Amino acid sequence: MSGFPTLLYKELLRFWKVSFQTVAAPVLTALLYLVVFAYALGGRVRVFEQTSYAQFLVPGLVMMSVLQNAFANSSSSLIQSKISGNLVFMLLPPISYVEFFGAYVLASMIRGLVVGACVLAVTVWFVDLRLAAPGWVLVFALLGSAVLGALGLVAGIWADKFDQIAAFQNFVILPLTFLSGVFYSIHSLPAAWQAASHLNPFFYMIDGFRYGFFGASDFPPLASLAVVAVSFVLLAAATLALLRSGYKLRQ
Amino acid sequence: MTYAIEALNVEKRYGALRALAGVSLAVAEGEFFGLLGPNGAGKTTLINVIAGLARASAGAVRVMGADVAAEYRRTRRMLGVVPQELVFDPFFSVRETLRIQSGYFGLRRNDDWIDELLHTLDLAAKADANMRTLSGGMKRRVLVAQALVHRPPVIVLDEPTAGVDVGLRQGLWQFIRRLNRDGHTIVLTTHYLEEAEELCDRIAMLKAGRMVALDSTRNLLDTFSGLVLRLRLERGALPAGLDAEVLQSEDTRFALRLRDYRALEGVLRRLREEGAAVRELELEPPDLEEVFLRVMERH
Question: B173: domain CATH number?
Fold first, then answer.
């Protein structure tokens, strides 16, 4: 029997044991965004026909929570194990680098999806939402969380201290999610910023996810899916290569 | 012959630093083997290479005949490692820690053995306590239990008694001796040289990444260390022409190094001839500390 199921279980148990911090807190944050943005700006912003700003905002907030929490899970788990030294317990057993990758990324996806589902479950009490194409919602949530889970793993492998993870989170992940069209449609931006937004892979994740709710988006969903899928494949290949080489883990 | 551990010309470089500069050794199955050396000699690096925590820059390591890089799944099952640092996962209880560690080795229903380990290592009362709440000695015992959850035939202990009180140390050694009697191969690093002398069949000494001694504990003691004779005379000085090195001379107290027990007869004869009356006499057998210091001086 392989060590993979146990490593996955351990990663899930880890965040579940501190679920106030890992699940409840991000749900509250998303709710605060909804209150502040939807009620303060709601009257002034119109994005799609027959869609209120609050309705537009909720899928963006859900996906933002999915992405940020998927990243937070693998990155913080790995850096904690590295710094406290208990990573040795995972490196001594016969766990392959592919199993290691699989367990960390899958646990991150599950944390992202759990937080996303909770944000959705809470916000639908305040905002009337319908799912036009639920398949797209699921596909983008799964792929998006996988990308961020792998990215978190890369950050965790690379970083030597908590400060570097925080820098990665605040200077890379946070700006990319905020500027990905969570709070606005990129069509409302000047042309130069619109073009810049197309360079941001997070834009395609949010936009495709939102398509699943409204059947309308800034970019064709299939093309968005292709961008996100290719991002995942490239990132997964790079992460696996890092793990295989033992970079910063088996030195 | 299959060795429990076999290292062949193992080198480990970190940039310009050569942590291991071509180390070779073979540990037989069932042996109690000591790995000694000052801080920074490369003991932990060698253990890390054996355990797959670090990769050798050159050379090869085999555990029970299997290569630690190419056949890592086999070698890691054969090996239980107690790390030097007192590490733990603060999210889990003692039992959870041991169950998870079993699961990493693919063992799902391992509770009987886990209970036995908890009992033997005197941890049963703390089974459901969070790791954070344990004392240092208890955390150390959990580390030992973690290394044994998959019943490995070869056990490596990297300074398991550092900072552990005397009572606990005795208990730990009793347990490890029993494992050795049951057929487990034990590899041990320690700074407590009396412990190594008492426990180990054979000893390797490392200095600056090189092997500077490798022999049975008995041979090392015989080769490097003479006896120390401590004398207190009634009066007067030591006679001239003694077949011994004078280590210490203070008033009527003297310490002499003898090559072996036969040299004692000559010293006593000279004392008699000179009419020196002996008031106290003590003969100290060779010890490993002396051997260690001499080996380290020589290289």
Answer: 3.40.50.300
